[in-house]
Design goal:
The chain contains 3 helices and no strands. It starts with 53 loop residues before the first helix and ends with a helix.
Amino acid sequence: MYSARSLASRPSSIPRLFDDDIGIDLKCEQQQNVDIHGQPFTTLSPEPARTPGLIHAAFDLAEIFQEIANYNIDQPTKIGSDDDVTERAKLYLRILELKASLPSMFRQESNFTVQTCFLA
């Protein structure tokens, strides 16, 4: 993980203001991509395909990145100390846990879209 001090005094907090995918079951494996008009994506649909609900997973990842940035700014322990390495390992584990919890439609290996590549 990046451990240099940021030039910014503190990363901005990001409010979750979107509700475009409310009602989508993020754990449901039967979801499908949609086109730019919100209709089911087919071979005749305009590109690119959109993955409904993925913005929520991207936001969850952004929140973890925010915690990492805050930790790098605060640096409560000496860089490289046992406590520092332990805390960085915990933050990295949270990223891995998030990735493991994603449904297959959010994974580029099974649903290759622009959005899933970004999330990878």
